Amino acid sequence: MAVYKAPLRDMKFVLNEVFRADQLWASMPDTRETTPDLADAILEEAAKTTEGLLFPLNRQGDEQGCHWHDGEVTTPDGFKDAYKTFAENGWTSLTGNPEYGGQGMPKSLSVLFEEMLHGSNTSFALYPILTNGACLCLDAHASEELKQQYLPRLYSGEWSGTMCLTEPHCGTDLGILRSKAIPNDDGSYNVSGTKIFITGGEHDLTDNIVHLVLAKLPDAPSGTKGISLFVVPKYLPDADGNAGERNGVQCGSIEHKMGIQGSSTCVLNFDDAKGWLVGEPHQGLPAMFTMMNYERLSIGLQGLGLGEASYQSAVDYARERLQGRSAHGTQNPDSNADPLIVHGDIRRMLLTMRAWNEGGRALASYVGMQLDMAKFSDDPETQEKAEERVALLTPVAKAFFTDRGLDTCVIGQQVFGGHGYIREWGMEQFVRDARIAQIYEGTNGIQALDLIGRKMARNGGQFVQDYIADIRQWLSEQADNAVVREFAAPLERAVATLEEVTHSLMTQAQEHPNVLNASAVEYTDLFGLVTYAWLWARMMAAAEPKSGDGDFHDAKLTVGRFYFQKMLPRAWSLAEQLQAGDDAIMALGAEAF
Ligand SMILES: Cc1cc2nc3c(=O)[nH]c(=O)nc-3n(C[C@H](O)[C@H](O)[C@H](O)COP(=O)(O)OP(=O)(O)OC[C@H]3O[C@@H](n4cnc5c(N)ncnc54)[C@H](O)[C@@H]3O)c2cc1C
């Protein structure tokens, strides 16, 4: 059976031993109160909530799914009560702005909580995660009046939030969206249009649903520069701020889909629904990006959380299931077969899963810390550098976590053999639930284009060069560390490969306009592999002193060696593919496909 335990020991290792997040928090006034004891207590409570409240609803949520009737959507049994408890225990306000009722906790802590949410019940996770993103966007861009009206109720969990971008004819290319907003004399707008695939667009968990909607004003310029952002509640707030009169937005239907059955995916029809502008006219897309960047990291964590759940379940199974004898001779003389875990191929699969998960957890924490510096640091230079790093690594995190997350879930299913394909074991649910994370929040192809186009080529490779310089700086500071010395040469080779390929692609692009588009996904994979090599080296450097938990640290070193010997070498073949250019991709005429 599938199992899930929050990987607390590894989470605390990454936070406290690898990155010394406590020192960062103590250095910034707004995060000073997050002491190591408080952070530990939050993680432990989060583990109890996700293991005890959410994971038990995961399987049933998949079996029952959501149901639409006459515009109303019911979520699976248990979701509503669980959401109430979840909100009452303060989980919906963890990172919220304290001025409006949030708890102001750092992102480097909440990424670990979000991983637990996705690992235990990814369908449930999407409701609060979308709400958090909506809060972040309102907090950054809405007027004071709108913030007062919406944020306290969203933080308290009484209301939830959505993100309404996609329309039937436009997903990636938002410049061609058709939804319209007509100004009223009282400062409000009438919003009309059809949005599809809206996560949490309608459900029975909260008293009100607050939609953040992209639409065009009558005088809008064409393309993405003509998009504005509106807040459109399902129920209009009354004079006391409670959910009052019904607004002109209806859920036309929900989608029947491959996975995340407990998450409602809705068609929303806006028909002169009353809304209010968030931010400046025609500046909706940059404002929405505040939400989308947050969601991209969170959706990345969907891949990571599910990969962890799949790994734990596969380890359990590999210990229990008896098949064949070890190549080293009988290991289990009391039975006529040895457990799966003795076999080389099973160990290869388990180690691959673990190396992806632990590398991913380290990257999530690193990006979380950069987000904290960007938000809370009072030093403009630190802030600017952190913003650049977040911009560079967000598409990598989203795409690499979710691609490797699906790989990991498929490997976990493989460890179960035929039982992995059978519903009751739960392994196929992880695969189905992980698949969507590669598609929504901007497909992974689009994340890769963001990395190679906006974050790499547009500034002449400067962000990448700064990143490489930081890795080299770290390596030079570790010259005396015996463990790092063992991996200094492959890490330096990895960094040099990334540098060379980056330079080569920019040169190729001058003559071959399609080379960046055609190389983006492979470049993102290379970037991810090199990044994980650095983070594995950092974890191994922190594991080396074996401070009181020898087994854990020894295992960390062993998995790290596996990463360097068995996984990083994929970077060399990717580099060769990337250096080969785009001729083979663009040569075939469209009619010849
Ligand atoms: C379950 C689910 C939940 C969702 N939740 C939400 C939500 O809450 N809110 C919301 O607004 N949307 C949501 N979406 C929509 C989702 O974000 C879009 O489906 C996604 O962004 C892709 O858009 P599309 O489906 O229109 O594909 P298209 O844009 O048509 O893309 C099709 C393919 O072409 C590729 N492609 C497109 N343009 C280019 C290019 N220039 N160069 C190279 N390749 C390109 C894409 O990568 C993709 O592989 C959800 C979707 C699903 C299925």
Rg of Cα set: 24 Å
- Distinct ligands, ions and cofactors found in the model: flavin-adenine dinucleotide
End-to-end distance? 44 Å
- From N to C, what is the helix and strand string? HHHHEEHHHEEEEEEEEEHHHHHHHHHHH
Helix count?
18
Q: Sheet bearing the most strands, described? A: 7 strands, mixed
* Unreliable spans: none
Proportion in helices: 55-70%
Molecular shape: globular
Task: Quickly give the structural class.
Answer: alpha+beta
Overall number of strands: 11
Oligomer: single chain
Question: What topology does this entry show?
Answer:
Layout: H1 8-18, H2 21-27, H3 36-54, H4 58-64, E1 67-69, E2 72-74, H5 79-88, H6 107-141, H7 144-156, E3 159-164, E4 180-183, E5 189-199, E6 208-215, E7 228-233, E8 235-237, E9 243-246, E10 249-254, E11 265-278, H8 284-320, H9 344-376, H10 380-415, H11 427-435, H12 444-457, H13 462-477, H14 482-511, H15 515-543, H16 550-567, H17 570-579, H18 583-586
Parallel strand pairs: 3-6
Antiparallel strand pairs: 1-2, 4-5, 5-11, 6-7, 7-11, 8-9, 10-11
The structure holds flavin-adenine dinucleotide.
